[in-house]
């Protein structure tokens, strides 16, 4: 009834229940990238090649290259350990490169001593 002076509340608006989210597949898994070991591996390989055939050819250059590559790999590993790896390979490269340099220095010293002894 709508009598004059009577209060009629406004009609209640129908609100639908909140919509359920539609099922979506889960996102694909994120794959962790393996740390790059390129420089460290190169250091180790150059050092090992320097030990095996460096005394025939290459001389101390292979030892120097192995040590330099190993130091570069260690500095890269220190700057970004998540993306650069191969710390062990770098140390092996430095050790083998140092050994190549030591052997080459001994061979050079023996050669110099032999030259001095033969000239007298």
Keywords:
rod-shaped, mainly alpha, 120 residues, 57% helix, 3 helices
Question: Can you describe what's shown?
Answer:
It is built from 3 helices and no strands. With 120 residues, the protein is mainly alpha-helical. The protein has a domain at 38-119. It starts with 37 loop residues before the first helix and ends with a helix. The model has no long low-confidence stretch (mean pLDDT 87).
- The count of β-strands is 0
Global mean pLDDT: 87
Tell me the span between the first and last alpha carbons.
138 Å
Helix percent band: 55-70%
Offer a quick outline of the entry.
The protein has 120 residues and is mostly helical. It has 3 helices and no strands.
Secondary-structure blueprint:
Elements: H1 38-53, H2 60-79, H3 87-119
């Amino acid at each position: 009834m709508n009598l004059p002076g009577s209060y009629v509340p406004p009609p209640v608006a129908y609100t639908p229940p909140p919509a359920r989210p539609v099922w979506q597949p889960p996102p694909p898994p994120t794959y962790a990238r393996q740390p790059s070991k390129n420089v460290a591996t190169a250091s180790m390989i150059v050092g090992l090649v320097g030990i095996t055939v460096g005394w025939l050819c290459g001389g101390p250059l292979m030892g120097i290259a192995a040590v330099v590559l190993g130091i570069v790999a260690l500095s890269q590993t220190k700057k970004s350990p998540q993306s650069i790896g191969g710390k062990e390979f770098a140390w092996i490269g430095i050790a083998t490169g140092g050994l190549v340099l030591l052997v080459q220095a001994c061979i050079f010293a023996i050669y110099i001593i032999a030259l001095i002894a033969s000239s007298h």
